[in-house]
Amino acid sequence: MPGPGEFELIREYFSSRFQTEGQPNSGAQGYANQSVVLGIGDDCALLNPPTGKILATSVDTLVADVHFPASADPFRIGSRALRVNLSDLAAMNAEPLWFTLALTLPESSPDWLEPFARGLAATAHAYGITLIGGDTTKGPLSITIQVTGACDAPLRRDGASAGDRIFVSNTLGAGAAALPIVLGEIDGSLAQQQQQQQQSEAAYYFPEPQFAVARAIGEYASAALDISDGLLGDLGHICEASGLGAELDLERLPIAPLAQSVKGERALETALTGGDDYQLCFTIPEQHLSALGALQLPITAIGRMTAESGVRCRLHGVGWQPSGTSFQHF
Ligand code: ADP
Ligand code: MG
């Protein structure tokens, strides 16, 4: 049986379930977003930006078998696709407003579209972001999402000063440790490995954009970004943008339990260069350290910014060189 045609597909899986019933184009299900004048269905969405705010916008493409296994549960693909984009908003300390979805599908299959749209809608609902439009084309499976949010005081990469302390949120290494298990390269099916399997799937398909940490550090941080390609490389972006370098004390690195259990002795390296963590890395000027400490956030100081360029690592005071580098497409 052939699947739905292009317009039926858009109506069935996207416009109908992302809009309030009886109020076409007024926003998403139950959390109608007042800023959407006109949502899915016309040539453009019409938007009413919040007054006095700066808009933050970002786009990311997820290509099948590059950014997720093509055969993965579509609900989880929908979740991951939106979460990794939301992480960019969190990294700027922007509150989610709207997103668009450009979907390239090899076929129009309800068995794929139904759970994908559910995963996307559940995530959109959880983070209060509204789908306002998109594009649907035929070809190899690929998902492009553009997110837009609003902020008062954006957290940029270029604001750090020498001497600022470097922090990361939560723990690192879970995303990279999860990858071989999610890809089925390590067998997670044995009873003693089931916990690793579950933790891996949670880390990989349900990463948590760090909005709460971003809000809390907003008034103190001098620079910030989300760690998508590995701490070492991403911290390098703050260094470059700020015209500085950094030194890290690796014994301080908060390593994810999953990285420890899967990677063993290579856990440190995984936490340092592995991608897919979506935690925040940020810098705090000395004078704000005590105010920040009083907030009791899930963050760890791991080093400081230096006038000398390049990122230098020490382990218990001894210079340390990782064997890998952060992820790059080319
Ligand atoms: P146009 O021909 O003007 O480019 P389309 O036919 O591509 O418009 O899309 C019709 C409407 O459906 C537009 O409002 C568009 O934003 C929306 N749309 C198309 N594909 C998607 C999708 N995958 N998700 C959400 N909205 C979509
Ligand atoms: Mg048009």
Describe this structure in words.
The protein has two domains: 6-151, 2-Layer Sandwich (60s Ribosomal Protein L30, Chain: A); 165-319, PurM-like C-terminal domain (Phosphoribosyl-aminoimidazole Synthetase, Chain A, domain 2). It contains ten helices and 13 strands. With 330 residues, it is of the alpha+beta class. α2 runs parallel beside α6 (211-217), α4 (174-182) crosses α5 (194-205) and α4 crosses α8 (257-263). The protein has helices at 6-15, 74-91, 110-127, 174-182, 194-205, 211-217, 231-242, 257-263, 267-273, 289-293, and strands at residues 36-38, 46-47, 54-63, 95-105, 130-138, 142-151, 165-169, 223-227, 245-249, 279-284, 299-306, 310-315, 318-319. β1 (36-38) and β2 (46-47) form a beta hairpin. The radius of gyration is 21 Å and the shape is globular. It binds adenosine-5'-diphosphate and magnesium ion. The site of adenosine-5'-diphosphate has 13 residues, from α1, β4 and β5.
Short description:
With 330 residues, the chain is α+β, with helices and mostly antiparallel strands. 32% of the residues lie in helices and 25% in strands. A seven-stranded mixed β-sheet has the order 8-10-7-11-9-12-13. Strands 3-6-4-5 form a four-stranded mixed β-sheet. Strands 1-2 form a two-stranded antiparallel ribbon.
Describe the structure using short key phrases.
330 residues, alpha+beta, 60s Ribosomal Protein L30, Chain: A, Phosphoribosyl-aminoimidazole Synthetase, Chain A, domain 2, 7-stranded mixed sheet, 4-stranded mixed sheet, 13 strands, 25% strand, binds magnesium ion
